[in-house]
């Protein structure tokens, strides 16, 4: 085997991984770098380093209002989708009822349908029903497509529960509600939290369905799309960078907490 071939075979995975990471991280690096740009009329060309954008995040007109709207929509849709999706997941796993298999199949449709089709269909329904577009229609639309992801996530957790644990609670004369609150719900909580985080991320990030059903209501992705025509303001880059840093901190803290818990359980065992 030629030396070049051996060298490439040894380092091919590293080269591929480096190229993939660079390709994925370039947009994030660009967003973070231009959050420090000394922009005046546009944020397209680099004009120098400044912290003014971070110290005056709400100076750009409408950016903080759009961000607040996205937070409100994301939290509302997450709560609704998580509650409804968890109840549907438990019903699908624990109970037998007519059209159960058809219900399971239909729940996958919002995940498999293109967003432009969902957005246009919902917009037509709201128009037919005479519902004025705004925050309410956006929350309802986001709740609709988030429910499917919640059901899929929580359903796997429900299916993996050991029925003997709930049976032990009933043997100790606990009522059905007490068994659910003290046994079933804590065991389901990791799946429910994962589903809620996924729902919030999907809702906060959505643009296509929101654009069809929001009317004059502006969310952060919609604000960024509109502003992109004349150069995204640096304050929007600041918010996007802050969200990225918060997500990184959340993941690191979660991983450290999980590692500490595993270590503590290993010492106890």
TrEMBL record:
It is a multi-pass membrane protein. Gene3D superfamilies: MetI-like (1.10.3720.10). CDD domains: TM_PBP2. The chain crosses the membrane at residues 12-33, 71-93, 105-124, 136-158, 179-204, 238-260. Residues 67-257 form the ABC transmembrane type-1 domain. SUPFAM superfamilies: MetI-like (SSF161098). GO terms for cellular component: plasma membrane. Keywords: Cell membrane, Membrane, Transmembrane, Transmembrane helix, Transport. Pfam families: BPD_transp_1. Its main location: membrane. It is found in: Cell membrane. InterPro entries: Bact_Polyamine_Transport (IPR051789), MetI-like (IPR000515), MetI-like_sf (IPR035906). GO terms for biological process: transmembrane transport. Belongs to the binding-protein-dependent transport system permease family. CysTW subfamily. This is ABC transporter permease. It comes from Glaciihabitans arcticus.
């Amino acid at each position: 085997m030629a030396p070049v071939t051996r060298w490439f075979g040894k380092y091919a995975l590293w080269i591929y991984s480096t190229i993939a990471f660079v390709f994925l991280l370039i947009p994030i690096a660009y967003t973070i770098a231009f959050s420090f740009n000394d922009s005046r009329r546009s944020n397209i060309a680099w004009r120098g380093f400044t912290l003014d954008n971070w110290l005056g995040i709400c100076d750009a007109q409408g950016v903080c209002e759009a961000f607040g709207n996205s937070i409100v929509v994301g939290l509302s849709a997450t709560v609704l989708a998580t509650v409804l999706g968890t109840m549907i997941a438990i019903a699908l796993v624990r109970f037998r009822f007519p059209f159960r298999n058809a219900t399971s199949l239909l729940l996958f449709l919002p995940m498999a349908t293109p967003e432009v089709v969902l957005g246009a269909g919902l917009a037509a329904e709201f128009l037919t029903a005479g519902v004025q577009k705004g925050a309410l229609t956006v929350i309802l639309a986001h709740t609709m497509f988030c429910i499917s992801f919640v059901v899929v996530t929580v359903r796997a957790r429900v299916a993996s529960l050991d029925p003997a644990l709930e049976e032990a609670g009933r043997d100790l004369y606990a009522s059905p509600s007490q068994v659910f609150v003290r046994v079933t719900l804590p065991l389901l909580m990791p799946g429910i939290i994962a589903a809620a985080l996924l729902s919030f991320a999907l809702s906060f990030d959505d643009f296509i369905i929101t654009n069809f059903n929001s009317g004059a209501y502006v969310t952060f992705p919609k604000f960024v799309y509109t502003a992109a025509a004349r150069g995204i303001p640096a304050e929007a880059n600041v918010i996007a960078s802050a969200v990225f840093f918060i997500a990184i901190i959340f993941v690191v803290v979660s991983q450290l907490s999980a590692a500490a818990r595993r270590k503590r359980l290993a010492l106890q065992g």
